[in-house]
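Our consortium's second objective concerns turning raw sequence data into structural hypotheses that experimental partners can test. To show how far this objective has progressed, the report includes one record in full. It was chosen at random from the queue rather than selected for favorable results. The single chain below, 293 residues long, was entered without modification.
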Amino acid sequence: MQMPGGHKVKSYPEIVYFNGEWMKYDQAKISVFDRGFMFGDGIYEVTPFYEGKAFGLQEHLARLQYSMDEIMIELDAASLKPIMVEAISKSGLSSADAAVYIQVSRGVAPRTHYFPEDVEPTILIYAFPASLKAFENKQWSVLVSEDLRWHRCDIKSTSLLANVKSNTQSHRLGLDENLLLRNGLFTEGSHSTIFFIKNNVVYTHPEGPQILSGITRKFVMEICKELNIDVIEEAFPFSHLNTVDEAFLTGTTTQVMAVKEMFTDGNKIYDKPEIGSLTRKIQQAFIQKTRNL
């Protein structure tokens, strides 16, 4: 079944930072015994830059540090800050909308199921152009399916097979995202945070191991407070979907994206052809926050 949606093919970055050196992307090579390659034993982070200026940089670095601490990779996330700025400059994106990707694996070691000691982390950093304008004029069509991920979604792990499988499922249907359910409750999307609006109250899943601590989520909740919009951090039941007035998703490059329709088992279960008034108000406040850095 083909449904509305569209996807662009991404290209490789021209230059990357790899283990202390800048080089062309096709010159960056990892060992076959890198634990990121063998186990997905690593973490990653993506930080947006609006017209060359980082947004939420401290928050993104703090989340990076949290993820590394949780899986016991010893590295100071703050030490990567100047490399991130340099990545923007070297990629010719100093006045453009862009994002910086960071990936840290545990490093190279003989294969064992326990963490080896005294291993130097493998570090990859690069910048890429990002389409961060006009999101307020778009709406996403999404799939709803079961959440099959592990129980530590708060760690931004490179072990993303369940997320990738879920997103591929929606992608092959021509949809933009897959919203996940655990025990009948919405958790988050395969690469986004879910917000529902009901009777002018915003609902979103509480922080914890079942969701990633979204940085855009945090700023949107601050915006709601500034706009005197009530927010309840509570997992929203799938069975109450017919009571929802508006829904939107957030993410680093997703920003604040209105949901137009939802599908499951080939059936449309949510249909909002117009962007809701409260979603629009939050979108406009987010634009002001990110474009006035």
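The partners drew two points from this record. Helices lie at 35-39, 57-70, 81-90, 161-171, 215-226, 277-291. The first strand starts at residue 15 and ends at 18. Both points have been shared with the crystallography group to help prioritize constructs.
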